[in-house]
Amino acid sequence: APLYAVVPAAGVGKRMGADRPKQYLLxxxxxxxxHTLSVLLSHPRIxxxxxxLGPEDGYFDSLEEASHPRLIRVDGGRERSDSVRLALAAIxxxxxxxxxxxxxxxxxxxxxxxxxxxxxGDQGAILASPVRDTMKRAGADGTIDHTVPRxxxxxxxxxxxxxxxxxxxxxxxxxxxxxxxTDEASAMEREGWHPALVAGRPDNIKITHPDDLRLAQLxxxxxxx
Length: 225
Ligand code: C5P
Description:
Layout: E1 3-9, E2 26-27, E3 30-31, H1 32-41, E4 46-53, E5 71-75, H2 80-88, E6 97-100, H3 110-117, E7 125-130, E8 135-138, E9 144-148, E10 154-163, H4 164-176, H5 184-190, E11 196-199, H6 210-224
Parallel strand pairs: 1-4, 1-6, 4-5, 7-11
Antiparallel strand pairs: 2-3, 6-10, 7-10, 8-9
C-alpha cells in the first residue's frame, strides 16, 4: 500500500515566544520545517508528503522544499487534530497508510521511520519512549496525591502510523464526540484499536521551548560531524 507522510504545521507555537511560528525558526542553516520535510521526502518508502499550513502562513513559499514535486500543501485547522484530518482528506487512495509527524520534530532519523514501518501486529503503531522519571499525580491543591507506577508508562512521540482512511474516520468521530485528541493513537484507541509502541531514538525531541532549539542544534550538528 502507498505510504503518505502527513505533517501538521499549522500551529503558532505560542510557548516559544518568537516573532514567527516556531516551525519557521532557524535550526543551524535551515528552518525547522525544512529539516522535517527533507527527512520525510528523502525516505524511499514515502510516496508523498502532505503538509497542513496555517491560513495566514507567509513563510512556506520561501522554503526549498515548497516546490518539491512530491509535496502537497493543504490548509490546516484550529487544533492539531483538525490539521491532520484536513491533510488526510487529500489522500484519494483508500488503501493508503499515513505516517503522521509533527513539523516541530526536525531531528527525526530514517532509522526511526524504518523501525516504525516494521511494527508488530496489525493495529498501527507509534514511536514512543519509556518514562524515566518517577511520576506523580497531583491533587487539586498542587500537592502529591499519589505516585503512578512508571513501568507501564510511555511518552507518545511521532511519527504515528495508521491506515489513512481508518484514521480519518476516527478523527471525524472523535471530534463529533468532543473528545480531546492530542495524537493520532488517542483517536484510534477510542475506536478500540491497540496500536503498537515502538521505542524511538531519544533525539527525536519536539521543539516547544527555546531550550529545545539549542538541544536540537546540538543533535543535528553532531550528526553532520
Ligand atoms: O504546539 P504543539 O507543539 O503541540 O504542536 C504540534 C504540531 O501540530 C506542530 O507541528 C504544529 O505546527 C501542529 N499544529 C497544527 N495545527 C494546529 C495546531 C498545531 O498543525 N491548529
